[in-house]
């Protein structure tokens, strides 16, 4: 059993191209909660003066999504899945400067279509 579901076996659709779902195992999720540091907030404030992309926040958001995604894949593998369909992200601010990022979907077992 793999420790994680392969990235190419994840889809935001209700199917994985080239595969047939043989069993649905239920909802899986990965969650992370991140905060911005004082230094990060200061750097972002300086970037807002210039305008454009605030790369400090972009990097923080990307890392949070990646971590939540990987946790979801491990959760799916622990359930015996080799794929995830209907994958989505959600994010909420749980306190000022503290954000929860959730990756979720349906764990499935798939086999190659014939």
TrEMBL record:
InterPro entries the UniProt entry points to: UPF0145_dom_sf, UPF0145_YbjQ-like
HAMAP family, alphabetized: UPF0145 (MF_00338)
Protein family (similarity comment): Belongs to the UPF0145 family.
Organism in which the protein naturally occurs: Rhodanobacter denitrificans
Xref: SUPFAM superfamilies: YbjQ-like
Name of the featured protein: UPF0145 protein R2APBS1_0840
